[in-house]
Structure formats: C-alpha cells, structure tokens
Amino acid sequence: MSATSAFAEAVVRVATPLAYAALGELVVERAGIINIGLEGSIIAGAYGALVFAGHGGAIFGVAGALLAGILLATLFAVFVLVLRADQIITGTAISMLALGTTGALYQTMYGSVGAALTTPTFAPMVIPGLSSLPVVGRALFAQPVMTYPLYLLFPILAWWLYRTADGLALRAVGEKPSAAAAAGISVSRVQWLALLFGGAMGGLSGATLVLAQAGTFLEGMSAGRGFIAIAIVALGRWTPLGVAGAVLLFGAAGALQFLAQAMAWPIPYSISLATPYVFTLVVLAVARGRAVAPVALGAHRE
Amino acid sequence: MSRARAWREALPVGAVAGALLLVAVVVLVSAGADLRTALSALWIGSLGSRYALLSATLVRATPLILLGLSVTLAFRAGVLNIGAEGQFIAGASAGGAVALATAAVLPGPVSLLVALTTGVVAGGVWAAVAAELRRRFGVLEVISTLMLNFIALYGVSYLVHGPLQEPTHVYPQSATLPMVARLPFVFDGQRLHVGFILAVLLGLALWYVFARTAAGFRIRITGAGAAAAASAGAVDTARVSFLAFIASGAIAGGAGAVEVTGVTYTLFERISPGYGYSAIAVALLARLHPVAVIGAGVFFGALEAGAAAMQRDAGVPSQFASILEALAILGVLAVDRLRARRQEAAP
To answer: Residue B176 gets which letter from DSSP?
Structure first.
C-alpha cells in the first residue's frame, strides 16, 4: 500500500469515532444544548461494548454501547432539563463520573492488569468494486462495518434537518425556544430526544473504539473525543455537511502521527500525540464568527 | 453573613456529604470489597492517626485547596476554567525544571523562590492562552482549557522522556531535587510541608479580597452577569474576567510548583492524578467560598488518602475517590436547584 493510500485509510479510521460523536453533538447543539458529558457517553459506550461483546459477539456489543451511551445522556438530561442545572458543570461532572466508574468497573471485573483482554471485533469489510477506486478506494470502502452507516447518516441528517417538519422543530428550539413553544412545539420533548440521540451516537463512538479499532478497553480511551467533537461542530458551522468536512480535517490531523511514524519523521511521540489537541485550538480560533451558532445555545433557561 | 443564613448554606452541603457516605458504602459493597476492612482502611488511612493526618490527608489536601481556590476565583468571575489540571502541570513542569537548574548555583531559599515564581508565571501563561482565545476569538473557555489539559499532559510526557529525563535515561521522570531546593516540613518526621500553610493563607487572602476590596466587588459583579455589571456602572467585565482567568491559572501553576518542591521532588507524567478535576468538586462543595474551600479541600484530601489506603488494604479500585467527587458535584447541583425551585414555588 502506498503512503498516500495508507494515510487516507488512517484519516477515515481516526475520523470514524469522531464522526459519531460530532453527529450526536450537532443534533444536541441544534436543540440549544451543549453536552460536555458526551465524553462520558463515549467512554460508557466503550465499556458497554466490551461487556456485551464478551457475552454475545460484536453486534451485541453495539447494543451495549447504545444502551450505555443513552444511560449517561439520560442522567445529563435529568439534571439539565428537569432540574435546570448548569450545562457545563453537569457535563463535566458526568464525564468525570463515567471515566471513574468505567475505570473502577474494569478493574473490579477484569483485574487491574486486564490489558490482555480482547473482545470480538469487526474485521474490515471490503466492498467489491468501490474499494478498487484509486487512492480513496481502500480508505473509504475497506473499513470495519462501523464506518459505513456514517455515509448515510450525514446526508439523511442534512435532509431531515432542512426538509422535514421535525427538523424545523429542532432548529426552532435551538434558535428561539419561546417562539417554538408558542408554535406548539414541546421544547423539553425535543431537547430530550436530541440528548438521547446524542448519547446513542456517543455510545457508537465508544463502540467503534473497542469493536473496530483497539479490540479491547483501556481506561480513559475516549481521550477527549467528546470535547473535540464540540470543536468539530463549531468548525462545521452547525451544519451536517460542514461537520462531515470538519471531521475529515480532524481525521487528517490525527492521522499525521501515523504518517510521521511511517515516514520516520524525527518528531517525538508525545508531541505527535498532542497534535490533534493543538489543532483543535487553532481551528477554534480560525472558526470565529459565532453568529452562525444556534442563538439559544447553552442558554440557562429558568 | 447572618448565623441563620450560614446554616441555610451549610445544611445542604451536609446533606450532600451524608449522601456521599451512603453512596460510598453502596459502591464498596457492590465492588465486592469487605466493608469492614475497607472502612477501617478509609479511617486509618485518612484521620485515624497523627501520621495519617499530617503525612497523608493534609499533604493530599494542599493541591486540592490551592486548585479549589483557583477554580473558585475563575467561577466567581464567570469564567468556566476547567483547565486547572493543565495549569497545574505547566506550573509543575516549569517550576521543577527551574528548581533543578538553579539548585546547584543559587542558595536554596532563592532557588525555591525562583522555582515557585516560575510555576505561578507558567500557570498564568497556560491560562492566558485560553483567556486570549476567549477575548479575541470568542472561543469557549471550557473547550480550550480541556484541550490545553491534554496538551500539558503530553508536554510533560515529552519532557520526562526527553530533555528533563533523569541522567541514567531509564525512568520516565526527571532527576530528584536536592534537599536545599525542597520546601521545608512543618513538623519533624511528618510529610506536611509549608505549602499547606501557603494554601490556608491564600484562602484567607482571597476571602478578604472578595469580601472587602473593590477588586473583589468587580469580580463578583462580573460573575453575576453582564447586565448586573452594566447597571452597577463602570465595570469593564471583559477585562475583569480576562485578568481573573489568568490569576486563576497562576494559582494553579503555583500549586504545581508547590507539589514538585514539597511532595514529589521530581517530575513525572502523572504528577497530577486528576487534582484539577477534583478541585471543581472542592470549589462547588465549598459554594465558591474561599474559607470553605480549605475545609472542602481537607475533606477530599482525607477521602483521597483514605481511598489510597483502601486500595492497598482492601483492593478497592483507585477511582473510588474521583467517583465520589463527581457525585459530590452532581449532589450540590441537585440540592441547589431543588432549593431554588422550592423558593420559586413558595415566594
């Protein structure tokens, strides 16, 4: 495999878990909420995938990840939508809770070493024909099955958001909740559903890490992807296609470290690991112009 | 603050602390730990002896108090600085590097002073990155500070595998500080160092600033919201929150330098086992009151010291303390919101 196609393959691989997380966060933010607890849904999803896959195989693992991701999102929703607690502090606490609890459960159930533990995984699924395309063929069409739903999810979300009444309702809730309520939309119902969807996507992000990539669980393996997803959504200007592009850009930033290794560039390992986070900061500065953000985003409603 | 109001403030905190203990027992039982062994380790490891108190609990409490004050200052000014962790690491790295470099050439106390100052500056600079991103580009400080936490973590990892690695190049840590460059102990034969006294003094000083000075008034007004600040007259909220953000980072950086010169004497990757996140729990449980932060810091310091003993003696997972800290934050949020609702319902 040439260096170019190896790099392209790494871009898609790095982008896949980010894409699920960002897709979920996009819907949540369009409903006017910032869920920093998404990080918690991702790590919970990863752990859920590990436990369920151990009992019933990789597909069952996906179900476990969905359940775990939704569970964490439910907790966030209770605090933010029912109790009207601060979104940022709630999200931070929920991420802490999920990181700590999954780490503790992992130690309790599998012993403090446990690193050798592997789960059933999804092997790369080569799609005949398409995977023979030059350069991007193998990158896009020889991935584990977790990647493929994304090719549909982004266009479907774009259509749903701008072409359906429910999509309009979601956008209205994020822009002007009072007007949405006056138009007979249940703001809290829309926000609940958006958060649960976001949690499910966070869970799938975690499932990808365990079932399609690492083949095992590592404490803290979400590694800030939930937070990076929030930056991706801002860079993508809160639109599905913009977010899809931003995801690929972040995938490329993350894949640079593999390229650096393959090319034997003299960059210290720790520094190459820090690249995506530095990149996120730069991107946030460049992606100014918050006028396009949902107007009621993060608003503390009483 | 009237005595009745003080009770109203303290009561929910007590309720949260009580609920936490209950949850702790449930977690321990479900983790399959022997409850008797675990609880006795928790007690003996935290408050059960003079040694536990002066060599474990208060030593653990020191960074928690300092970082709790850092978070308190930022939150009071309406800045959601989640980056105490990274600012602490930046301060520990810079302070440690300077202490190692100067210990041989400068008199001990001077070297110490330079190291601590460097830590303060490094933490301030680390926060200033996020503060400037917020001021100039409107970047949410929550995201930028979290990113800076990861960058600091990989930065210190680079340092202890590279330029600052100890001379034999075997272990991923720096050389050890010579005796002269270490913070003095408070009592003979106990690990408690003067950093704890600094932390307590800083708590009192911040309380004075908030309660009695014009700067404190401006910070509180800024935190209360732009509208309130505008109605109170000429408070430049952008400037106040910018400066408070940097000061908050400076405190966290100082805490890092104190940890290196007072406790670990060397720099390594996990110099902070998540102190910066625990500090959010400390600050919120203290209701952002600087003097109460001291108490909350000691409470969580005891919890973390006890948790370490429980891991040793009863095999309780090491994340036990951080789970309780997360629950403490949620507990305070819930109690606050429920109380606010009751007040709305019965005005």
So the answer is: P
Q: How close, in Å, is residue A93 to chain B by CA atoms?
A: 5
Q: Does B175 map to a domain?
A: yes
pLDDT at A283: 84
Q: Is the pLDDT of residue A93 over 90?
A: yes
Q: What is the mean pLDDT of residues A234-256?
A: 91
Asked if residue B18 is part of any domain, the answer here is no
Q: Is there a contact between B161 and A93 if contact means CB atoms under 8 Å apart?
A: no
Report the residue from B142, B317, B319 with minimal CB separation from A88: B142
Nearest by CB to A271, from B137, B154, B280: name it: B154
DSSP state of B174: B
Global pTM reads 0.90
The answer to whether B137 contacts A230, with C-beta atoms less than 8 Å apart, is no
CA neighbor of B87 nearest in space, from B111, B109, B60, B63: B63
Helix and strand counts by DSSP (H, E) for chain A: 11, 0
B65 domain residue, yes or no: yes
Contact assignment for A284 to B151 by CB distance below 8 Å: no
Which residue from B minimizes the CA distance to A94? B326
Contact check, Cβ <8 Å, A104/B31: yes
Which one of A34, A92, A278 has the shortest CB-CB distance to B151?
A278
> Which among B64, B102, B50 is positioned nearest to B261, based on CA atoms?
B102
Using the predicted structure, report yes or no on whether residue A113 has a pLDDT greater than 70.
Answer: no
Cα–Cα distance for residue pair B262/B266, rounded to 1 Å: 10
Lowest mean pLDDT among A105-109, A203-207, B128-132: A105-109
Grade residue A291 by pLDDT with cuts at 50, 70 and 90.
very low
Domain covering A3-292 in this structure, CATH number: 1.10.3470
Q: Cα-atom radius of gyration of chain B, to the nearest Å?
A: 20
- Considering only the beta carbons, identify the residue of B139, B158, B333 that sits closest to A86: B333
Phi/psi class of residue B166: alpha, beta or left (left: φ > 0; alpha: ψ in -120 to 50)?
beta
Query: For residue A98, what are its two tokens?
Result: 């999920």
* pLDDT mean by block of 10 residues, chain B; 347 residues: 64 73 75 82 92 94 98 94 96 96 90 96 98 90 91 94 90 91 92 96 96 90 74 78 96 98 94 92 92 95 92 86 88 85 70
CATH label of the domain that carries residue B286: 1.10.3470
ipTM over 0.85: yes
Judged by CB atoms closer than 8 Å, whether chains meet at A100 and B154 is answered as no
Per-residue model confidence as pLDDT tens digits over A129-167: 888 888 788 888 888 989 999 999 999 999 999 999 999
What pLDDT is attached to residue B344? 73
Tally of structural domains, chain B: 1
Q: How far apart are CA A235 and CA B272, in angstroms?
A: 31
Q: What is the CA radius of gyration of chain A?
A: 19
Q: Residue A302 — pLDDT band, cuts 50, 70, 90?
A: very low
Each domain of chain A, given as residue ranges in start order, spans 3-292
Rounded to whole angstroms, how far apart are CA atoms B322 and A253?
A: 31
Find the length of chain A. Answer: 302
Nearest chain A CA: its distance from B54 CA (Å): 27
The answer to whether A274 contacts B330, with C-beta atoms less than 8 Å apart, is no
Residues of B within 8 A of A274 (CB-CB) are: 150-151, 154-155, 158
Domain that holds residue B146: 38-336
Instruction: Answer yes or no: do A270 and B280 touch at CB < 8 A.
Output: no
Is B23 part of a structural domain of the chain?
Answer: no
